[in-house]
Amino acid sequence: MDTHACEEMNSAFDIAVSRAASDIHIEHAADDIVVRLRVNGLLSELKRLPTHMALPLFARIRQRSKMDTIQTRAPADGTFSVYAHDQLVSARVSVIPGLHGPITVMRILYSRTRATLDSLPFSPLLRDAVQGALEKNEGLILLTGPTGSGKTTSLYAMLDRLNTPERAISTVEDPVEYQVPGLRQVPVTPDTTFEKALRALLRQDPDAMLIGEIRDRVTAAIALQAANTGHLTLSSTHTNSAPATISRLLNLGCEGYDIAVALELVIAQRLLPVLCPACALRGDQREEGETSHYDADGMTQLETHWINKNNLGRYRTQPFARASPHGCDQCHCTGYKGRIPIFSAIARSDAMQNAITAAAPEGIERAARQQALYEPLIIAGIRLAVDGQIPISALMQMQSVSTAVDAQIDTPALIVAATGVEETNQ
Ligand SMILES: [Zn+2]
User: Fold this and answer.
1) How far apart are CA 349 and CA 182, in angstroms?
2) With a threshold of 0.85, does the pTM exceed it?
3) What is the 3 state secondary structure string of 260-302?
4) Separation of 22 CA from ligand 1 center, angstroms?
5) Which residues of 369-387 are buried (b: 16+ CB within 10 A; e: fewer)?
6) Is it the case that residue 423 has pLDDT exceeding 60?
7) Largest CB tally within 10 Å, which of 10, 84, 110, 308?
8) How many angstroms separate the alpha carbon of residue 389 from the centre of ligand 1?
9) pLDDT at 242
């Protein structure tokens, strides 16, 4: 075994895990081997290695992933566990033969990333609403947002709270993202479809269940049926806002009355990039050689226009912060450090139930605005921007993705093109 290759692998994993990277990409380019990390959704180069390292390095990866080490000309998948930066992580490895040599992507799966309810930055009102809903014996709790908005994390934090020996909890997911002792987790397969698994599970009469995603009329109907017949039911949808989730269920053909009776809580969620506190620029602060045009409030003309267009001028009480274009050591030169979720929720109320039963979208929106709990996502986001935690540009980006989610309801292909992300149940 080539010890140098081993060291390079271990060092890449150490750095990747210390930065909470989601993937390590290693590919044989024309003149060298490029190692890149994906952190907070952004890919950046970690290092380049000389080509003579290629053979031992890729052999090491294939061997550890238990791939065929003789037949190396076909795409292959594998997994292995590694101890890196003081924790055990799993790597899901995919190797594809490229023009110059193997292209390897290693997805890092962290066992410790499951959040608890206490670790989520809920407002006090939302925390009470979530706890109240989780104490019920039946009803529907929905998380909504685009792919990669952290819905699964929040749903699992709720399951974590419910997961006691006295409760039978079942999940149906495609795929199962976190394996949790105490839960009966059912992955969707060609034989065990969502519908078959859900119908079978209902006959087993669990106390609580997670339906990975409501994606069509059938799963929506089963979710409502479960929620209305003595099962606390958690699920997710792909919509733009909490009120839009109810409209989505109505559009899928669910009866307003069934939704009104079932629905306990709808939470819309997004993940926004957090500015590195060590190097974020405030107001009219400039970095040497910076050419962009920022005003004294740290905003570009485009951002000012966006603030005015969205009637957010009243939040412009102090200069906004923005990412340093060059970053610093602490953020590995990205200007950002981690991501933070924002939430917008609506709960059961008489006015809400009446509006849902009447299947009136304007009434639903109005009933939402009457709730002290409710504030639109953009308001939750601008609070963080005022606080200097996120840049205005992150909110603009969030809104453009939301617009794409709206479009998705009619044309599913659009969202993929607009966000450029693969479809995973996150
Ligand atoms: Zn920094």
Assistant:
1) 33
2) no
3) HHHEEEEEEEEEEEEECCCCCEECCCCCCCCCCCCCCCCCCHH
4) 19
5) eebebbbbbbebbbebbbe
6) no
7) 84
8) 13
9) 96
State phi, psi for 385 to the nearest 5 degrees.
-70, -40
Q: How far is the CA of 300 from the centre of ligand 1 (A)?
A: 21
Ligand 1 mean position, distance from CA 324 (Å) = 7
State the amino acid at position 90 in one-letter form.
S
Provide CB contacts within 8 A for 361, sequence distance 6+: 243, 247
Strand, helix or coil at 187?
A: strand
Q: How far is the CA of 234 from the centre of ligand 1 (A)?
A: 38
| Res. 112 pLDDT band, cuts 50 70 90 | low
Find the 280 Cα to ligand 1 centroid distance in Å: 7
Distance 323 CA to ligand 1 centre (A): 8
Could you tell me the distance, in angstroms and rounded to a whole number, from the CA of residue 329 to the centre of ligand 1?
Answer: 6
- Look at residue 36 and tell me whether its pLDDT is greater than 50: yes
Q: Tell me the mean pLDDT in the region 71-99.
A: 86
Ligand 1 centroid to Cα of residue 114, in Å, is 26
The per-residue pLDDT for 419 is 31
